Amino acid sequence: MAGKLSAFFGAQDMTVGNPATNLIRFSTPLLIGNLAQQLYSTVDSIVVGN
To answer: What pTM, to 2 d.p., does this model score?
Structure first.
């Protein structure tokens, strides 16, 4: 399990392998971060609005 996480979050060579898979693996943390920011902004607006 730790090996898979290390391989997923560690350094990756984007020049080899399937480009679609590389793009998905690259963009997944970005999407999670954007969703977290959007959730925080929404909750903040609700709290301040009340």
So the answer is: 0.66
